[in-house]
From TrEMBL:
Domain ABC transmembrane type-1 residues, every copy: 82-271
Taxonomic lineage of the native organism: Bacteria, Pseudomonadati, Pseudomonadota, Betaproteobacteria, Burkholderiales
Sorted UniProt keywords: Cell membrane, Membrane, Transmembrane, Transmembrane helix, Transport
GO CC term (a single one): plasma membrane
Natural source organism: Pseudoduganella rivuli
CDD domains recorded: TM_PBP2
Transmembrane segments: 20-42, 48-65, 86-114, 134-157, 207-229, 249-271
Name this polypeptide is given: ABC transporter permease subunit
Record family assignment: Belongs to the binding-protein-dependent transport system permease family.
Gene3D superfamilies associated with the record: MetI-like
Primary residence: membrane
UniProt xrefs under InterPro entries: BP-dependent_transpt_permease, MetI-like, MetI-like_sf
Keyword Transmembrane attached: yes
GO process terms (BP): transmembrane transport
Amino acid sequence: MKPTMISSTVRRKPRARLPLAGVIGGVIVTFWLVMAVIGPYIAPHDVGGVAGDAVFAPISAQYPLGTDYLGRDMLSRVLHGAPYTIGVALAAVIIASFGGTALALFAAASGGWFDTIVSRIVDVKLSIPSKLLALIMIAAFGSSVPVLILTAGVGYMPGAYRISRALAVNVQAMDYVQAARSRGEGLAYIMFYEMLPNMLRPVLADLGLRFLFIVLLLSGMSFLGLGVQPPEADWGSLVRENIIGLSEGAPAVIVPALAIATLTIAVNMVIDGFAGRKRRGG
């Protein structure tokens, strides 16, 4: 008799697949993150260096992105502006999302008077528009990178708190959280080992959205002349200072606007793909 052949094929667990739009968005976001790190080092000219006499020069081999209203190379200006646009937004969103999520976890897990007081304070803060708060802060303390980071972070923390608290309230009522309480686990363990992992996906999606909001807020403040100050520049200030070239279709005003647009659209594509991805065979 022939020995019975046992199949060695192992059924693998389906993997989550990111849609094509999410992959494309991830590539673009990764590109801009890399440029935020190495951009100033690979820029052909200094941030304020005048490359030539040509004002609002068109795209050419010498000036791949044209020149601005003073004859400065726009490629260099965009590369030097990437750390400010992206870096300041990242620092602010870390304050907003991490701070709001940690506070929401503690409030939902502890409950009682602390949860009530924090929630009412957040409600008051939500009644103040973020742009108005930014204008007040800059008028009081002046425009600097630390002030911009703190203003954007504090301004968007209440929204992150409300989203995270709504998730945390639902999660903390689950059986596994109640079992952890019955075992006598500490509050920190329940917050970060039982609750946070089960609400991480929507929290990360909200983090991406807050990053978009902060990029647009900072770009808007720079467009008003209240953001990063000369000689440094971010993409919003590049649009503002070259706005007179808009009637001529100068690349100097179009390029930084496209940089902001590609970054925000790409982040949105990643968020949509991350939130809506399906499992193969599911």
